Amino acid sequence: MIEQEIRRLAASYADTLKARVDQRVEEMNADDNSHYMIYQVLGITDEEGRLIDIYQNKGRFLYKYAGSFLEEAAKACFLAKYPDSRSVKIPNTIGRRPKTFEIDCLVGGRDALEIKWRDATTDGDHVTKEHTRLQNVKNAGYKPIRVMFYYPNRTQAQRIQKTLETLYAGANGEYYYGDKAWRYVEQYTDINLKGILETIAAERDCGG
Hints:
This protein is an alpha/beta fold. Strand 1 and strand 2 form a beta hairpin. The chain has a 5-stranded mixed beta sheet with strand order 1-2-3-4-5, with helices on both faces. The chain has helices at residues 2-28, 36-41, 46-81, 124-139, 155-170, 179-189, 193-204, and strands at 86-91, 100-107, 111-118, 143-150, 174-177.
């Protein structure tokens, strides 16, 4: 049952995240904190500086695991509905680097899904790379589809996403984000992924 699979996946990621964070915090107890002097110059106390450093490290792990979990959970939905769906690597026939591009989930031998939990990049080079990837996907005979669950908040990052949306349209592809992304997964797979995750989140009782 897909809900049980997603629950197992969530538990596994939660355990791994906690272990990695605990390990890093323990390592930080032995760190050289002489840089706290600069924090003090800027009006940050030693205690504030320590907490900032800890949460900066926690944040890096959290973003990594949150993204990987949601992307894997989404792929599990497509795999449950379409057992032949899979990740596929295609050669880069336009440029030299990278040598290959990976399609996160190829469904029905045609729909090439790029699954993102969110994309907050503001780097213009990101657009160039995505454009190259799109053209390679299209040239390989697939339909490029981008599914991104959370839209960025910052203006520059939103501009990048608008550009990507235009590029997908130009490649006869599709681009879904926010509520449209959740609905797309549900309509395509008959699985309410967001509903399952909302239930798990409520059971964790971390809202306070």
